[in-house]
Write a structure and sequence with these properties.
With 538 residues, the chain is an alpha+beta fold. It has 19 helices and 16 strands. The chain is globular.
């Protein structure tokens, strides 16, 4: 049987899927706002009258509400599934513990009422996210809902353009950067505390998971009539602070809930129940039942003393402990997420030069992240840097056929991938102009940057995916096919976004691959549950 119902690493990864969902909403709303600020096509200088005309058009509240509702619906379903899995894992784990101890396990360890109460509270917290969210601007003084954020950006631009000091693009750049730097925040109106929405989502999920795990642990200890618990351990545990604040000092050992027992007091040593102690804020440790004479320790004291060996590092002249190295990773991940919001917002606003400058910074940080993680011997957690919206919503115009040969002016070379069955793809668009599928060097670089090694390893699958997809799903942009393909023998699944060349596009455009990546089976199945299926292969 496993030593823990959940390893610290698995516990840390549990909320990531819902956090990604809210990052996706964040970028969707940024695009909805910023794309309406785009006057890049206007040849003449933008005037105050032009800005007022934009304001009169307003913003589509229906689209905003649709995106929010869709996120809310998906998050409720996914949270229910996730928490039900937590219940099943704990139930199975503690039945096995009781079997080893020679105790007959009850059919249900934790009552249905207790489980329902914990799950209902988690759902309320998740539901509150979209009801109390907005963008934080004016140096943190003002919280704006998405519709008001659009008006705020135009008001700022009008005031600055009227002053004659700066151009419209300069004014919009400032507003867009504030919105992107903020990202979606949620506010606790009782305390006034504000968090990024993905952080709040992670916390809501982890609160529910931790409460369920604690309930099973405590109930099982009662059945087994034991006051003892072993605490989990992981690389890079917090090694700062005094007493229980220093998690590395107490992780991986056995404790008692009784003072003066054969094992140390779990409350006094580990700070169980305190915000900075065991199972407190941002703590990845959990306790599980210890049966004296039956249970065996997961780590010896010697192994715990050396658990961080090889994970401290001196990098660019600065020394990092294992804990400090994990914090450095988190800091880079947060910065990349912020820059990706900027990148998406600048592109939507038509500020291409600014978007390109941010793209260069993202590339440099991605390289630094890889180099630092390798030096510290820590696994990369690139999923924490993703903004999922990019995968299906960032639509660029396909390259013209006359750019097949790279031009001296620096144009993007084009590579033919294969041909589609136009009849099959008519579920997406009626008037498809060509069956040819291409990919540009720029898109290849995009895939390499966002999904490292996927293109090098799996490019041979591209033609098979576009020619014979297993599924064509509804995408979030017109004339765009969201393809899924599973290669059963290789146990590999792929997602591909294809922009179709249709009537009304510039003559000579080809069907163009926007992005491509390998996906886990869980995500593949989730797409089939949550997206509209337009076509399924027989």
């Amino acid at each position: 049987m496993p030593r823990y119902p959940f390893t610290p690493e698995l516990l840390d990864s549990i909320p990531e899927e819902l956090a990604e969902l809210y990052r996706s909403l964040e970028t969707t709303l940024l695009d909805e706002i910023c794309s309406r600020l785009n006057l890049a096509e206007q040849l003449n200088e933008v005037t105050v009258q032009d800005i007022r005309a934009l304001r009169s058009h307003g913003i589509s509240l229906a689209e905003i509400e649709k995106a929010i509702q869709r996120t809310s619906n998906i998050s409720k379903r996914e949270l229910d599934k996730l928490l039900n899995d937590v219940v099943e894992r704990n139930q199975q784990y503690y039945r096995e513990v009781m079997d080893l101890a020679g105790v007959t396990a009850p059919e249900t360890l934790v009552s249905a009422a207790d489980i329902a109460a914990i799950m209902a509270q988690a759902q309320r917290e998740i539901g509150n996210l979209t009801r109390s969210m907005g963008f934080l601007v004016d140096n943190g003084r003002t919280m704006l809902d998405p519709a008001r954020a659009y008006q705020w950006a135009l008001d700022n631009a009008e005031m600055k353009v009227m002053s004659g000091a700066i151009s419209y693009n300069q004014a919009i750049r400032s507003a867009v950067k504030q919105l992107a730097d903020s990202g979606l925040r949620m506010v606790d109106y009782e305390s006034g505390h504000r968090d990024h929405i993905d952080v709040a989502a992670r916390r809501a999920v982890m609160t529910g998971v931790s409460q369920l795990c604690a309930k099973y642990t405590e109930q099982s200890a009662e059945y087994l009539e034991t006051p003892y618990f072993e605490v989990s351990a992981h690389i890079g545990a917090r090694d700062t602070g005094v007493l229980w604040q220093n998690h590395k000092s107490w992780q991986g050992k056995v404790y008692s809930t009784r003072a003066g027992d054969i094992y140390p007091d779990i409350y006094e040593v580990c700070g169980l129940g305190l915000v900075d102690g065991l199972e407190g804020a941002n703590c990845r440790h959990i306790r599980h039942v210890w049966v004296e004479g039956v249970s065996e320790r997961t780590y010896t004291d010697e192994e715990l003393a050396h658990i961080d060996d090889g994970h401290d590092v001196t990098y660019q002249g600065k020394h990092y402990t294992a804990y400090e190295a994990t914090q450095k990773q988190r800091q880079i991940e947060r910065t990349v997420r912020k820059l990706k919001r900027e990148q998406a917002a600048y592109k939507a606003s038509g500020l291409e030069e600014d978007a390109q400058a941010v793209t260069a910074r993202i590339r440099r940080l991605n390289k630094e992240y890889k180099a630092f993680s390798k030096a510290a011997g820590l696994p990369e957690q690139t999923e924490r840097m993703k903004v999922r919206y990019e995968l299906e919503n960032t639509i660029e115009k396909p390259a013209k056929c006359d750019t097949i040969e790279k031009t001296s002016g620096g144009g993007s070379s084009v590579h033919t991938v294969g041909r589609i069955d136009i009849e099959k793809y008519k579920v997406v668009a009626d008037k498809i102009q060509t069956d040819e599928v291409i990919i540009t060097d720029e898109r290849i670089e995009h895939i390499r940057e966002r999904h490292p090694n996927d293109f090098e390893r799996y490019a041979q699958y591209l033609s098979k995916i576009v020619e014979n997809p297993d599924y064509i799903l509804e995408a979030n942009k017109p004339n765009t096919a969201f393809l899924l393909k599973e290669f059963v023998e290789a146990d590999e699944r792929f997602q591909l976004i294809l922009r179709l060349a249709v009537e009304g596009d510039i003559p000579g455009y080809k069907n163009s691959i926007i992005t491509f990546l390998k996906v886990e089976e869980k995500r593949y199945r989730r797409y089939l549950r949550t997206k509209k299926v337009l076509y399924k292969s027989e």
